[in-house]
Automatic annotation (TrEMBL):
Signal peptide: none annotated. It catalyses: a (3S)-3-hydroxyacyl-CoA = a (2E)-enoyl-CoA + H2O; a 4-saturated-(3S)-3-hydroxyacyl-CoA = a (3E)-enoyl-CoA + H2O. CDD domains: crotonase-like (cd06558). Belongs to the enoyl-CoA hydratase/isomerase family. It comes from Agromyces neolithicus. The keyword Lyase applies. Pfam families: ECH_1 (PF00378). This is Enoyl-CoA hydratase-related protein. Keywords: Lyase.
Amino acid sequence: MTEATTDGTTDSNDVRIERDGAIATVTIDRPNALNALSPAVLTSLAEAFESLAAEGPAVRGVLLVGEGGRAFVAGADIRELAGFTPEAGEATALLGHRLAALIEALPAPVIACVDGFALGGGLELALACDFIYATDASGFGQPEVKLGLIPGFGGTVRLPRAVGLARAKELIYTGRRIGIDEAVDIGLVVRRFPDRESLLAGARETLDLVATNAAPAVGLAKRVLVAATGTPTEAASALEVEGFRDAFRTDDMHEGVAAFLEKREPSFTGK
């Protein structure tokens, strides 16, 4: 939750949604504040993902980006944090966790497109997405301890899942930043790109590929993957069996199997 300072002002224009067919782009547009996550911005982001969820299978994928090129999100808004009481800190953390839960609950995949810094709350926001794509100019870190804080938007939960417990401890305890090479090496970043243009094109290409598949199946797979991560094998297996069962309730499952047997391309409806 770190690294950015602002004059404390924000408005609904700080977050915008753009649509290109079935693909949505959610942009955090506070470049002068390095896209800092104030409580107002967290609320606006939550509202954005709630509106996308309400569209159902009409949304097949989401790109989450930060405006400006210097930062995806450089962290929480430090000027606001400076005046927080413990109760205000708790309320802000709950906003961050609510946003992360909405991203994970969205049936469509969400790609964090990182171009620049993803620090503190910015990295936590990226970790809530299905995976992270990043440019060569990107940097990552959880430097909260340098401010006497700890990650508050899910970093202690999701970072170990992404890179392993020992690496997550090392990054959180030291607060050090890592570059794109190390981020790829430890599995934090799935794909790297030379610049922002190729990053967005590559992410869009991935979502276009996802969109050729059955939307209910993708949503069920995401539901199981999110819920099963970190749970004991027996419980995780039960979640998979439940998801597999639910797939048989969908029209797209029957269409996909019929198309395979008839040696034709399926015509999925999202039902």
